[in-house]
Amino acid sequence: MATTVTLKPNAIDLSGSTSGTTTLQASAVAGTTTVTLPAATDTLVGKATTDTLTNKTLTSPTMTAPVLGTPASGTVTNLTGTASININGTVGATTPAAGSFTTLGASSTITSSGTTSSATVASSNSEQGANYPTLSMKVANSLGGYVTWYNAAGVSKWSIYSYMGAAGQQGVLGIRDTAAGQDIGSFSSTGLAVTGTLSATGQTVLASSSGDVGVGVTPISGVLSGYKTLNVGGAGGGIFSNGNDTYILSNTYYNSGFKYAASSAPATIINVSNASVAMQSGVSSTAGAAITFVPFFLLEIGKSLALQGAVSQTGTGITFPATQNASSDANTLDDYEESTWTPTLAFGGASVGITYAASYNTASVTKIGSRVFVSGVTVLTSKGSSTGDASLTSLPFPADGIKAFSAVTCSIVGVTFTGQYTMELNANDDVIYFYQVSNLGVQTALTNTNFANGSQLLFSFSYFTAS
Q1: Tens of pLDDT along 5-20?
Q2: 47 backbone dihedrals φ, ψ, rounded to 5°
Q3: What percent of the chain is predicted at pLDDT more than 70?
Q4: Which of 182, 298, 365, 407 has the most other CB atoms within 10 Å of its CB?
Q5: Cα–Cα distance between 78 and 110 in angstroms, integer?
Q6: How many CB atoms lie under 10 A from the CB of residue 336?
Q7: Which string of DSSP letters, residue by residue, matches 52-93?
Q8: What does pLDDT average to over the chain?
Q9: Which uninterrupted H or E stretch holds 446?
Q10: Residue 312 phi/psi, 5° resolution?
C-alpha cells in the first residue's frame, strides 16, 4: 500500500510501496465529475495500455481497424459500409448452424475460410440496374464449393459450383438445376459440356485452339492453312470454305491437297462455288494418301448438267458420258446421244468406185437409252464396179440380239425391183440389206444390177441396241 498521501489543490500524489509516485490529476471541466470504483478488488484499465476485456459490454462503441478474435458464438448486426469479417468458425444466433447476418450493405463482403463453412447473402436489391452483393468463398480443400439461390420459401433452385480438382485433374465450373437434380452445363479446359439444347441469339462461334470446330469428334487441326473446318461425326466428315468455294467432305480432309481420312473406304466431296455445284468421288485407299477425284455430278450456270464421266456443255440440258455407263434397271435412263452417220452403199460387201452427190450422203442419229433413231439420204453419182447383194453398212450402233429384226422405211428413186422392195436389219448386225418381194411372195436380194449411177435413197427407221 502507499506509504505517503499528499493532497494538492487539484491532485493527489500516492507514493509507491517501494519507490515512485502516482498522481491522480483532475481535468479542467465545468461542474462536478464523479469517479466510481467497483466494490471489488480489481485492476483499472488504462487508456494508453494494452489490456484484455472479459465479460464487458460496449454500448455503441467506435472501433478503428478492430480484430474480433475467434468467438465461438455470437451475432454481429448493423454491418455497413465496406467493412469485412473474416470468419474462421461457425457464426449464428442462438443456434449456430442456422445463424445469419441480418443487415448487410450492398458493397459488403463476407469471406469464409473454413473448409466446410457456408454463408448466405440475403438482398432486397431489384434484378435490374442494382448493385449486387458479393460473396467471396475460399475453400481450403480440393473439392470445390457451391453458390446456391433459394426462393422465398427456402427451396433451392439453381447453383453455381466449382471443382478445383486434385493434382493432375481438370478444374470445372458448372451450373446445376438443384430443383431437378441435374447439371445444366459446365466449363473446363477440355471444353463446354451442355445438357439439353445449346441455343444462342445472334452469332455464336465454337472453335478449338486451332480455330477448327468438331461436333461429336475432335476436329482435325493443322490442315488447310488459313481456312477452318467444321468436322461432324467423324474425322473425315465436315465442311470448310476457302472464300469462293465451300466443300462438304466425306472421309477426306485438305492438307496441301485432298487426303483420305481413313483407309479402305471411298472419299467424296461436294464443291459449291460461285457458279457451280460439283460432286466428286475417289476409290478407297490408305489414310493420308492423296485423292484423285472423278466427277459424277456437275452443274454450272449456263451449262448442262453433266453426269458421271461427262463434261458440261454450253446450254441447258443433261450431258451423258461419251462411253455409256449402262444400268440394268428398266426404269433408268442411262444414255442420250445426238450424232451423225455417213452411210456406205456396198455391193457384195465392197464399195469400189462408188461416189455420192455432195451433201447428199448423210444421216442424223439420236440415241435415247437403248433406242436408236436414224434419218438420212444417199444420192449416187456413180455406182462403181463392185458386184453382189446391195447393203448399207457400218451403222453407228449394232442391233440388239433380242429386240432387233427392224424393218426400214425407205423411198427409192432410180432403183429397179419386182413386186415390192424392203430393207431389213438383222440381230447383232450393223448392216441394212435390200430385198425385193414378188407378187407370189418370193424374196430375193437387190444387187448392183438394180442400181444406177443416179440412184437415190431417202430412209427413216429406228431399232434397239445393246450398247
Answers
A1: 777 777 887 787 777 7
A2: -70, -40
A3: 69
A4: 298
A5: 14
A6: 15
A7: ---S---SS---SS------SSB----B-TT-EEEESS--BS
A8: 76
A9: none
A10: -60, 145
